[in-house]
Write a structure and sequence with these properties.
Radius of gyration: 20 Å
Largest sheet: 4 strands, mixed
CATH topology of the largest domain: Four Helix Bundle (Hemerythrin (Met), subunit A)
Distance between the termini: 22 Å
CATH superfamily of the largest domain: CRISPR-associated endonuclease Cas1, C-terminal domain
Helix content: 40-55%
Shape: globular
Number of helices: 10
Low-confidence stretches: none
Number of strands: 11
Strand content: 15-25%
CATH class of the largest domain: Mainly Alpha
């Protein structure tokens, strides 16, 4: 089993990252702020425009360490990829399968089944844990409606059919998402999902967490030898990591949605950490972003029993395990791709 290593998040705006021997050196204003052994890292996520040195990018590429560049506000810019990892036959099988609608629908169905089931679990947990604070009858009704959609997924013959049911389930889920906000409702509320830009504080928080999850999903896929840019549910588009977006569908409710709600309901983040721009978009300040990243990293250390492997693993390894299971299915070692079901 892969070992859960560290992710280096470079968040200071005027920071430059370079390589000295086998050590990553973080400098700010020509002063060394931190040194990190390269062997302890599995990813570097850089929010800083100055960026990192070519030598460090090359060393990361050689060692399979992911490097992802984001704007200071968390918008994805680029990923650095080295030599293609894994068996070429695996990627050829991935490309061939992506061109076959019947086989693509089978895999995409599993992603959506996992997503909708985990969204239902978020609603069910809210009723179980906060029955006196939420409209339990309404949330239970929504959960039942999403369960009915789950039964229809297996009958879909095209990706368009799947996307239609996915849209219906998302409308139900996000239609009740505001019910799950139990604290700070004057600063955190939810009416609809908004992106590019996010138009309220909670959407800004969700978008940031989704960006982190996309990066980790892409790294996991590359680690097992799959191409994160060729998907089955999300269609190919230049520059879009379609398979990473596929994989994160089933993980978003568990990794991002639940964490966002916890941060708000526990008052770990507050409205003071968010600012409206001239175009109406909302951005997080540096301190809030660091707090969210810290919570994200702590969440990854928690352990869970994987429903398919029946093994206890850190949360942070779930994207890797799911990518590995997808690779095993494409190689013919599994009869179907088993989505991750949160319990």
């Amino acid at each position: 089993m892969k070992k859960l290593l560290n992710v280096l998040y470079v968040t200071e705006p005027d920071t430059y990252v370079s390589l000295e021997g086998e050590t990553v050196v973080i400098k700010k204003d020509d002063d060394v702020a931190m040194r990190v052994p390269l062997l302890n890292l599995e990813n570097i996520v850089c929010f800083s425009y100055p960026g990192i040195s070519p030598a460090l990018m090359g060393a990361c590429a050689d060692r399979g360490i992911g490097v992802c560049f984001l704007t200071p506000h968390g918008r994805f810019l680029a990923r650095v990829s080295g030599k293609v990892q894994g068996n070429v036959l695996l990627r050829k099988k991935q490309y061939f399968t992506s061109e076959n609608q019947t086989e693509s629908v089978a895999i995409a169905s599993s992603f959506l089944i996992g997503k909708i089931a985990n969204c239902r679990k978020v609603l069910d947990r809210a009723v179980r844990d906060h029955g006196m604070l939420v409209d339990g009858e309404r949330l239970n009704e929504t959960s039942r409606a999403m369960k009915a959609i789950l039964k229809e997924i297996g009958n879909c013959a095209t990706i368009n059919d799947l996307m239609g049911f996915e849209g219906s389930a998302a409308k139900l889920y996000f239609g009740d998402f505001d019910q799950l906000i139990l604290q700070q409702r004057e600063d955190f509320f939810f009416t609809e999902r908004s992106r590019r830009p996010p138009l309220d504080n909670l959407n800004a928080l969700l978008s940031f967490l989704y960006t982190l999850l996309t990066s980790e999903a892409a790294s996991a896929l590359e680690t097992v030898g799959l191409d994160p840019y060729v998907g089955f549910l999300h269609q190919d588009r230049p520059g879009r990591p379609s398979l990473a977006l596929d994989l994160m569908e089933e993980l978003r409710p568990v990794f991002a949605d639940r964490l966002a709600l916890s941060l708000v309901n526990r008052k770990q983040v507050t409205g003071k950490g968010f600012t409206a721009k001239e175009n109406g978009g909302i951005i997080m300040d540096d301190d809030t972003r660091k707090l969210v990243i810290t919570a994200w990293q702590e969440r990854k250390k928690e352990e869970v029993i994987h429903p398919f492997l029946k093994e206890r693993i850190p949360f942070g390894l779930i994207p890797y395990v799911q990518a590995l299971l997808l690779a095993r299915f494409l190689r013919g070692d599994l009869d179907a791709y088993p989505p991750f079901f949160w319990s």
